[in-house]
Structure formats: C-alpha cells, structure tokens
Design brief:
Blueprint (H helix, E strand, L loop, with lengths): L5 H6 L14 E3 L4 E3 L2 H8 L2 H7 L5 E4 L4 E4 L3 H5 L2 H10 L8 E2 L6 E4 L4 E4 L3 H6 L1 H19 L6 E4 L4 E6 L1 H6 L1 E9 L5 E11 L8 E3 L6 E4 L4 E7 L5 E13 L5 E12 L2 H7 L20 E2 L23 H8 L5 H8 L10 H21 L3 E9 L2 E5 L15 E6 L8 E10 L2 E5 L12 E6 L4 H11 L5 H4 L21 H4 L2 H11 L8 E4 L6 H12 L7 E5 L2 H11 L8 E3 L19 E2 L2 E2 L4 H4 L4 E5 L5 H4 L9 E4 L7 H5 L11 E6 L11 H5 L6 H6 L14 E3 L2 E2 L4 H11 L5 E2 L21 E5 L5 E3 L2 E5 L1 H13 L8 E4 L3 H11 L8 E3 L1 H4 L4 E7 L22 H8 L2 E9 L1 H4 L3 H12 L3 E3 L15 H22 L17
Parallel strand pairs: 9-16, 17-21, 24-31, 24-32, 25-29, 25-30, 26-29, 30-31, 33-34, 35-41, 35-42, 38-39, 38-40, 40-41
Antiparallel strand pairs: 1-2, 3-4, 3-5, 6-7, 8-10, 10-14, 11-13, 11-15, 12-14, 15-16, 18-19, 18-23, 19-22, 20-21, 20-23, 21-22, 27-28, 36-37
Helix pairs in contact: 7-31, 12-13, 16-17, 25-26
Length: 978
C-alpha cells in the first residue's frame, strides 16, 4: 500500500522518532480526502471542491485571527462578522483568511478519522478500539485510491479528476454511449508503454456498466503524442453507476511501473426530468449565531382570542425547570446521559419515585427542544405589516423546521438595537404557507418594510405543563400505574350473551373476546389492553366496545387519541349511532384543521373559536372525544373525579406515558376503567433528548405495561389483554415478513379478493408475488438551507411506477418516503400527470391508513459506506417501527425503491430484501450479497462492511503490486480546482 502513517492520518502528527511509515500524505478532514504531498494538499485547499465541501461540513476549523474554533460550514459568515472584522483590524491582517485545522480543547487529542475529541488519557484506548480501527482501515485503503487517481511522472490523463458521462437517456444507455480519456506525456525525455487498461467495478458490484477499448499490444505514449481511450457505458437499468479505469504504465527505459486511475461515473435517466429536480442551490447547513443576544426586557404581544375561550376553574402550575438541572444541562460534558442518571434520576421507577422520574425526563426534553429551536434564530429578517397582522416569512416552515403553531410566541428585536435592548413578543394568530401572522403590543411599530430584525422562536410550554400536571398533581394509583395480577378482579357476570352491533365481530373470536372482556371489566380494574397489529380491526373493536358499554344508562365515556386524525376516526364512527346531545367532539381552541364531514354538529364554537358548552351540558354527554393533550379540559372546567366510568386511549403506543395520562389521572375515579388500544410495534412517541430517550420517555405507557407479566398476551388473554390476529388488509405475501419479524407469526391473512388484484400482473417480476424491490443505486442530496435529503434517481423511478398504475384512481395509490425533501421532489415530478393527486407523505402521516398500492422510496444512497455510521442516518431504515408501519400499509401491491447496499446495513431490511429476492420479486441492479446466507443481526453491518472492504482491498493489492510507493519520488502537479 502507500504505507501511510496511522498516527499522522488520525491526528495530523506523528510523535514516534523511529516511525518507518510514509509521512508525506496530508488529510483534509472537511473533504475526507487524502493528498499524497504538501503541494497537492495546498492545491486542493485552493480548489472549488474544497470550498464547496467546507460550506456544508460539520467539522471544526480554527481561525488564527480570533484564536477560536468554528464549525466549517459557518466559516463564511464568521469572516464576514463584526467580531472577526474587528479582530482583523486590530491584528493588522486581511479578514479573508483560510481556515486552519480545528484545535482540540486542552487535555484532548483531535481524532480526524472519527471526527471527535478524545481525552489525552484515553487516546490509546480509543486508537485500539473497534470503531477507530474500522475508520483507520478504511482510510489506509482510501489513501491508495486517492493517490492512484493522481497523475504521475509527467503522465497525465484527461479529464483530470474523473470521467463523468453525466446524464444519459435510458434508450441511449441500452445502445451504449462512448466517452474518451486522453493520455498525454508532458516531459520530452520520457516515454511509457501502456501495459494494460482494465475496468474495475465499484466495491459492492460484481458487474460493471462500463467497458474500455483495448489498445494495441506494447502501445507507447510519449511527448506530443496523445492516446485516446474509448470508454463505453452500456446499461439497461436506471440509476447511478461507477467504475474505475486503471491504466498501467511502464517506463520504457527503467522498466518501473505505475498506475493511474480514473473513476467513471454516469447517471441514467431522463435528462430533462433530472435537471428539473436538481438542487436549487448548494446545501448550506443552518448555523446558530456565534453568541445569542441577551433578552432582558420583553414587551408582551397580543394573545389569540382562543386563549380565554375555555372557562378554567384553576390555573395550571408552571412546573419550571429547576435551576440546578438547567445549569447541568447547559454545561458541555462528555458523559451527559450517564451523569444525568447519577445526579438527577432515581435508581428505579416506582410509586415513590414516579413523579420525580418523569418530571426530570420532561424537563430534559423541554430543554433539548428549546435548544434545538435556537438554530432557527434569524438575524436579518423582514417583517411586513398587512393589517391587522405583522407577517414574518419563516424558511422551512412547510417542513416543520421549525414547527410553529397558532398561539406560539416569537420574540423580535430591531437589528440595530444595542445589547440589552428591548425585545417585542408577537403571538402567532394565523399561518399561511411559509409565513406567520403575528400580533405585537402597542410599542411595536415595524411598519418599515426595509427594517431588519433578530428573531427567536420560543417553546410553547403548555404541552409540558399539562404532562407535568398529569404525573405530579395526583399520587400514583397502584392498579393504574403499576398493575399486578392481584389487582385483577373476576369478570362481571352478564345476563345473556352479547349481541354485537357489527355482525363481522361475531365471526372474529379475538375481537369478540376483547369486546366481551371490556364490557365485563369490573369497576376499578387495572388498565385493559387491546393489542391491535396492522389491519386487525382495532378501531372497529373499540367502537363496538363503546356501543356495548352504552347499553348501560350509567356509562359515561371519555375517548382520547394522540392526534386529531385518530380522534376524528372515533368520532366519525360513533356519530352514526349517537346524536349531538349524546356525543361531543372537543377540539382545542387553537385548532384550524378541517372538521370531517358530518361532525360539525357535534362540536361547539364561541366567537368563531372551538370551545366547550356550559358545565351542566358537558356533564350530560354520554361520550366526549378529545386528543390526549386536550383530555385535561373535562376536569379543568369542573367535571368531577369519577365522572367517566370508562376512559379509552386509542393509538396509545404513539404517546409518551405523561401524554397518555393527561386525560386520565386528574379525573380517574376509584371505579373508572381505562382501556388502552394500540400496537407497541408501530410508531412510538417522538423524543428529542438523548437523556429522555435513554431513560425511557420514548417507551409508551402501553408498551411499559405490556412488558410485565400482568399483560402476557397468552397467559392473561381475556383478563388484561387481547391480541387481535385476523389481518383484513394485506395479501399474505405482503404480511409475511412483518408477521414473522414483529408478531410471532400469529397474524392470519384474511383479506378479501381485492388483495389478489395484482396476482398475474405483468408489472410483477414474479406474477404470483405482489411485492417488488427495485434496486437502484442513486445519490442522496440536499439543497439550499434544507437539511432534508432527496434522491432524484428514486423520484423518477417512483414516477415511472406511478404512471404505469394510472389506470387506478389516485386514492388507490400511496407513496411513502421518510424525508420531506423527497416528498417535495416526488410531488413536483407528478405534477401534470394522471397521478398528481396521489398522497405523498411520511410514515407518520400514513399511520392508521391503507392503500391498495404502496410505493416506498427509501432515499438514502451513500458512497461513504465505511466511514459513515450509516445505520444511524437512514430515517425509517434504521427504525424497526417505521419500517413496520411503512410495509404494512399496502393491501394488494407493495413496491420498494432503494439502494440495496445502503439498506443491507440494517438487519431487518437485509432479511426483507433477501426474502423478496428468494420469492422472485427483485428487479433492477443485482443483489450485492448472497441472499441464501443467514447472518446474525449483530453481524449484519460488519458483514456488509467486510464485503465492501474486500472490494477495496482487491484494487489496493493490484496497486501495491505495481510499486505504487514509487510515486512519492516526485510531487504531483495536479490541481483539483477545475
């Protein structure tokens, strides 16, 4: 190999006096590029590639003028900032300087390979650890590649960096498209014999799309005599393909040999469509200001009218974060999670520690969300007055980056204000596309459209306060919070068998058992769980149970769900059987969404804002339906504890435990029964704080209960839990893998004949298997200031499938993708097609929904397989629950479009793709591993890396055999600035 010094690669220096490794190499941390000498390294730093990479790099760079580290992507804004300009003037230097390598904190060593700082005392352990060794192995091999692409000994190959075929139309690619490499010699005193020209495929592919024309034997190149190499790309599949053209030279006099390599790249697809979807601007990571301006004085804004629309009987406590915990979270520290556990969390979760445990986690979550909001600070914003609101444009609002809701508070300050000057609070009254309408107090004018403002988004604490209240205001109830088998009571006897309203339940034993168990549940029982895997009729079961309970004239039900969509489903199903005097659907006063057809009479508005009736009327409703977070309203307006005989929480697996208990703990009576329905194998609560995640805030109340023996689905079937098993949604082939992976093969495919509607279709690689994986090597990209990924190659393949399915109405097709950037690009591609009304959305938006056909675009397609911890950056790819939801939405046809090598890093995806391949559902590029080989889950990632490393080693060994070390005799004159 190039015998590169590992210490030099990792830290930029080598302290060993007797080190025999090569010390000429230079490593650019921003570009992850190895240069073989100082000359090529200097040229690289001046080049366009380095400048472009610097704009979106997260590594630290050092400013010699300010004597401080900065994130590389903020370098341009730093050198244009007032502090840097002032420091440059004081030092007598020009402001436009080049960044230097980032410097580690005192007592630390910077590991450039792993992109982190390591305490000096732990360096030896870090250097010998498996993570560092993997990175070291990769970069030592990469050194061979990077050096091999350099021109050497006056021999040059044009173009200088890579042979880029750019975008080729599929019809042209099938016929074959040829491009040229030109070999030149710049020294009149030497000539070389071309010994061999070969094509090597990429690390994960056995075949290549490229071929190279053979030269005559003993072909000689010399000064003034150009040699042309014809490289042809022939490919039947769409996507991105790459290979390496390896040219072996031999000096005709010294007989020394060396190799020069040129990567060959191509994108195959419709040229116009590709170009229409390319990034609108290079991606630039959003940056926090170097130092936030202090907030010392704030003039209050005008709150929306709904703030006073609920007649609360008492004020909700603030539950502010304790100063000690706040100071701890603000302090940078290496072992934040571990230290939080030691210093602030109790050693166990029990009745005596319950409130402390969850309050600390809620405070950690609140702090993290507030900190995350800081990156959306705006320093040069304009505010436009359009009576009666001041409108602020918020980049990323459509992506919920930041997430802004009506009623949220935003504070602003004129850009020219001095430190410590007055800020103005504006409350959000309306939201329109990418801007919000604010109402400020009388002291704010903001009528000049050219005036600029500092802007900060404030976390709305009402959610946290309600969750704190749910776990703090009332002591834990053992049969609710920590149910044991001795809390379970014998079922109540019924007079005669239950006659179901829904005749389908009569033929479904599990559904009927769940309904019967809920109806016979003695007052004051532990929570009852309806475990409803996808498509098993969970909501149908809950609706039937509520209707059966209402046979008893004393039954009063509160039904909640984490989202308005889920709550609307319950209300819409019940409205056909209850009148507006019996059923009330409460919406939060801030709600501005669409009310489902026919549901308006079951709601109430006051002054055009959703509200509640007077207390007496609220007490007469048989059923009240809210979201979980609005479930605090019934007790908050004065309904007494124990008013509800039954409380239902649907989709309980999606809510954190505090959120789930908001509609429960402050109105639960001694006789009230709680029924939870959901699936812990589907989407759980979204948690941001690593501390909160580590200690269980992401575990729903439903999931925590189901982890105990009290809720063993077999031993306690019908007592505390019933698992629904008849799947009415999906074809057996679609259900097969999630059934095996998540549900112990308990589910039965019971769908109607619609699930067979694609059997025999010419669209299927196997006409009897309605699952397709379309393997397409693509490129994930980002644009402008949006951190969301998109993949143009997958967009166009998804469009092709959508157009082939144009015979179906759009409501029969759904497209799922994990990134908003991909959602936007797919929607753009479908404009003016027969499928432009198809719902394109994230997994979260498809939870609880189904379509006859589901197309999934997985998006991520990374070439940095070895140096990147890929499994942690793949959206739902690395999240089993998101995977489960995505693949279980389809009834008759499931199509997955993605990069198989990227997906194979995850054991769930690898096994799923292998199953599809074995059943003949694979199309596109060939599978890059042996699908017949079983690998343990914890070995999948390593096996994938080993396979890729092996391909890299093969080229490294070829290069090493050609005495590549000889290239260090002369420096390279190449410059990558083109």
């Amino acid at each position: 190999m190039v015998n590169a010094c590992p210490s030099l690669l990792a830290t930029g220096a080598c302290q060993a006096t007797n080190c025999t490794h090569n010390h000429l190499i230079k490593f650019c941390e921003s570009c992850r590029l190895i240069c073989h000498d100082i000359h090529s390294y200097t040229s690289h730093l001046r080049g366009n590639r380095h400048a472009a990479n610097l704009k979106c790099s997260s590594v630290n760079v050092f400013c010699t003028t300010c004597d401080k580290n900065f994130i590389a992507s903020s370098w341009d804004s730093h050198i244009g900032g007032r502090k840097h300009l002032k420091a440059s003037e004081k030092a007598g230097t020009v402001p436009e300087i080049q960044p230097q390598e980032g410097r580690p904190p005192p007592g630390s060593i910077r590991c450039r390979l792993c992109n982190n700082n390591v305490k000096t005392g732990g360096w030896a352990t870090h250097q010998s650890g498996p993570t560092h060794r993997k990175k070291e192995q990769y970069f030592l091999l990469k050194a061979v590649f990077d050096v091999a692409t350099n021109d050497k000994r006056s021999a040059i190959i044009l173009p200088p960096e890579e042979l880029d075929f750019e975008i080729i139309e599929p019809t042209d690619a099938r016929r074959g498209v040829t491009r040229q490499l030109t070999i030149q010699v710049t020294d009149p005193s030497v000539e070389y014999r071309i010994v061999q020209v070969t094509i090597a495929g990429s690390a994960s592919k056995r075949n290549t799309a490229f071929t190279v024309e053979k030269l005559a034997r003993n072909h000689v190149v010399g000064y003034g005599i150009d040699t042309t190499l014809n490289v042809t790309c022939t490919q039947t599949n769409r996507g991105r393909f790459e290979a390496r053209v390896e040219v072996l030279f031999e000096d005709t006099r010294s007989k020394e040999r060396f190799v020069i390599v040129r990567p060959a790249l191509v994108a195959i697809g419709n040229i116009d469509e590709h170009r229409a979807l390319l990034p609108i601007a290079p991606y630039v990571a959003p940056q926090r200001p170097e130092q936030r301006r202090r907030v010392t004085e704030v003039e209050e804004g005008v709150v929306p009218p709904f703030e006073t629309s609920i007649p609360w009987i008492s004020r909700l406590p603030f539950y502010m974060i304790p100063e000690e915990l706040f100071a701890f979270l603000r302090k940078p520290q290496r072992n934040l999670v571990e230290e939080a556990g030691k210093n602030f969390l109790p050693g166990h979760l029990g009745s005596d520690t319950y409130a402390q445990f969850f309050q600390v986690l809620l405070w950690c979550e609140e702090y993290k969300i507030s900190r995350d909001l800081e990156k959306f600070d705006m320093t040069d914003a304009r505010i436009e007055y359009r009576r009666p609101y001041h409108f602020l444009s918020v980049p990323g609002l459509a992506e919920k980056r930041p997430s802004v809701l009506i009623g949220d508070e935003i504070i602003v300050q004129p850009a020219g204000a001095t430190q410590g000057g007055k800020w103005f609070s504006g409350f959000v009254h309306i939201i329109e596309r990418d801007e919000v309408g604010l109402r400020f107090g009388g002291g704010f004018h903001g009528l000049n459209p050219n005036e600029r403002f500092y802007v900060r988004f404030k976390y709305n604490r009402i959610v946290s306060r309600r969750e704190h209240h749910a776990i703090k205001a009332t002591p834990p109830v053992p049969r609710l919070h920590f149910p044991l088998l001795n809390h379970v009571k014998p079922p109540t006897a019924l007079q005669g068998a239950i006659t179901t309203y829904n005749p389908d339940i009569e033929t479904n034993p599990a559904q009927k058992r769940a309904v019967s168990s809920i109806v016979r549940l003695p007052p004051g029982s532990p929570p009852f769980v309806v475990f409803g895997p996808p498509g098993t009729g969970k909501t149908v079961t809950i609706i039937e149970a509520i209707r059966q309970l209402l046979r008893n004239p004393n039954t009063v039900v509160l039904a909640s769900a984490p989202s308005n969509a889920a709550a609307d489903i319950i209300a819409s199903r019940l409205k056909d059987h209850l009148n507006p005097e019996q059923l009330f659907r409460f919406y939060a006063p801030s709600y501005r969404g669409i009310t489902p057809p026919g549901l308006a009479p079951y709601t109430f508005k006051k002054n055009n804002v959703f509200s509640v009736h007077e207390l007496d009327k609220m007490g007469r409703f048989r059923v009240i339906i809210t979201t979980c977070l609005s479930g605090c309203v019934p007790p908050g307006i004065g309904l007494p504890r124990g008013h509800f005989t039954h409380i239902f929480v649907d989709e309980a697996g999606q809510a954190s435990e505090p959120e789930c208990l908001v509609p429960v703990t402050n109105i639960l009576g001694n006789a009230t029964n709680l029924i939870l329905s959901g699936d812990p194998c589907q989407l759980g609560p979204i948690i941001h704080s690593p501390i909160a995640v580590e200690f269980g805030l992401g575990v729903s109340f439903l999931e925590r209960l189901m982890q105990s023996s009290t809720y063993d689905e077999r031993d306690q079937d019908g007592n505390t839990i019933v698992k629904l098993v008849k799947n009415f949604r999906s074809h057996a082939s679609i259900l097969q893998y999630p059934n095996d992976c998540f549900y112990g093969n308990d589910l039965e495919a019971c769908g109607n004949q619609d699930t067979d509607s694609f059997i025999g279709s010419t669209l299927l690689p196997n006409p009897n298997y309605p699952v397709i994986f379309h393997a397409i090597p693509g490129l994930d990209q980002r644009e402008a200031k949006s951190p969301s990924f998109f993949n143009v190659d997958e967009v166009l393949q998804v469009k092709t499938y959508a157009e082939e399915l144009h015979r179906l109405v759009p409501d029969d097709v759904g497209i799922i993708t994990p990134y908003h950037g991909q959602v936007v690009k797919i929607r753009k591609a479908l404009v003016n097609t027969a499928m432009d009304k198809v719902k394109v959305a994230s997994v979260e938006e498809y939870q609880g929904q189904e379509r006859k056909i589901i197309i999934i675009s997985t998006v991520r397609s990374s070439r940095s397989y070895i140096e990147t911890d890929l499994r942690h950056t793949l959206g739902f790819v690395s999240n089993p629950r998101r995977f489960n939801v995505a693949v279980t939405r389809a009834k008759a046809l499931l199509i997955v479009v993605g990069d198989p090598t990227t997906l194979s890093f995850d054991p769930i995806w690898r096994k799923f793709l292998a199953l599809i391949h074995r059943n003949g559902g694979w199309t596109g590029e060939e599978i890059p591993w042996n699908p017949e080989t079983d690998i343990e889950d914890d070995q999948v990632e390593e096996a994938t890396r080993i396979g890729i490393i092996k391909g890299m080693q093969e080229l490294a060994e070829r290069v090493e055999a050609l005495t590549l070390d000889a290239v260090f005799v002369e420096p390279d004159d190449g410059d990558d600035s083109s």
